[in-house]
Amino acid sequence: MRRFTTLCSSLLALLQLLLVLHLVAQVAADLITALTDQEIEELALLSKPERLEPDGEFLAPFLVKRVPGTEGNRQVQKFILEQGKKLGWFIETDSFTQDTPMGSIDFTNIILTKHPQAPARLVLAAHFDSKYFAPGPADFIGATDSAVPCALLFDLAFSLDHYLDQFTDPYTTVQLIFFDGEEAFVGADPNDFIWGSKHLAAYWERPTLFPATPSAVPYKTPLEHIDLMVLLDLIGAPAPIFNDYFANTSDYFHALAGLESRLIKLFLVSRHKSYFKTDRQFVGGIIDDHVPFVQRNIPVLHLIPHPFPKVWHTTKDDADALDHLVIHDFSILMRVFVASYLKAHPTPAPSISKMSPRLR
Ligand SMILES: *[C@@H]1O[C@H](CO)[C@@H](O)[C@H](O)[C@H]1NC(C)=O
Ligand SMILES: [Zn+2]
């Protein structure tokens, strides 16, 4: 009898697993086919590649030294806030002071949300600080780490904003997180890194009454509103290889690869070879801003190449290290991924007038 019960419960567990796997595969398939070829082409046409050039309006402001607690960092914060205002998105800041190996340092994470009342959020995140190095002949600028990822977030927001206005599903929205203090100051202390994300993840465990929490679901914490977090890091160098880091978001990874292959077929990206390694799961861990969120069971898609760019944490990680075709490909792919995720069709749907005015 006992053995029979064990057998039954094992079978049940197996069935549950198969069901989950099936649902996961369905998510990827639905995402890949959410938009028509014509809609994907329309989205690709929204590109303004000059904005992502080293002297372009989204990238240039990030290509400066921006160590936490310094004037350069504050200038970048100012730029992020200005762009948030221009977009008209909801702006939140999470400022705090912490003792670090460099003394007491002020940090500020910045969060921009398209429709703060929407209960589910697709989060796109990157860190805007640059790593501290002792003064030397050249400054560390961190073009791939993570100036380009930050510029890509603005490229995404500005190019899709109009569609998100007309978007008919009031349930899910886009939220951008710009993390401060990702980098270690010294690195000898295992706690000396991801200062900003550690703080925000802990802060968002508590319910906030106004205004981060939608009125419809007042008892949820901001963390509970996150559907999926996509973290971009070390992007912009030639020939990146992205790996499938987490089994529980593998479907989204495969969806990205599937959308990329549609873009390749439509000749909308620069190359025919995929940037995504889909044949096996990555083994090993990378410490980055996603860690405090993964620890709190937030599903994370980590878009960081491995191996890291050759210029990683050297003063050569500057504008000369960038491959503009890679950046351009990535900007189109992210746009198509987000539009597919939100099922935001470029052609306005007639049912738009049925939406509650609050959510428009
Ligand atoms: C996803 O997998 C990671 C790594 O195995 C785990 O730490 C995390 O808790 C999982 N998240 C969810 C939402 O299940
Ligand atoms: Zn770094």
UniProtKB/TrEMBL annotation:
Keywords attached to this entry: Acyltransferase, Hydrolase, Metal-binding, Protease, Signal, Transferase, Zinc
SUPFAM superfamilies linked to this entry = Zn-dependent exopeptidases
Name of the protein: Peptide hydrolase
Please spell out the taxonomic lineage of the organism that makes this protein. Eukaryota, Fungi, Fungi incertae sedis, Zoopagomycota, Kickxellomycotina
Report the family membership.
Answer: Belongs to the peptidase M28 family.
EC number, as in UniProt = 3.4.-.-
Domain Peptidase M28: from-to ranges: 109-335
One annotated GO molecular function is: glutaminyl-peptide cyclotransferase activity
Pfam families for the chain = Peptidase_M28
* Domain of life per record: Eukaryota
The positions making up the signal sequence are 1-29
List the InterPro entries: M28_QC, Peptidase_M28, QC/QCL
UniProt enzyme class: hydrolase
Residue spans making up a coiled coil are none
Biological process, per Gene Ontology: proteolysis
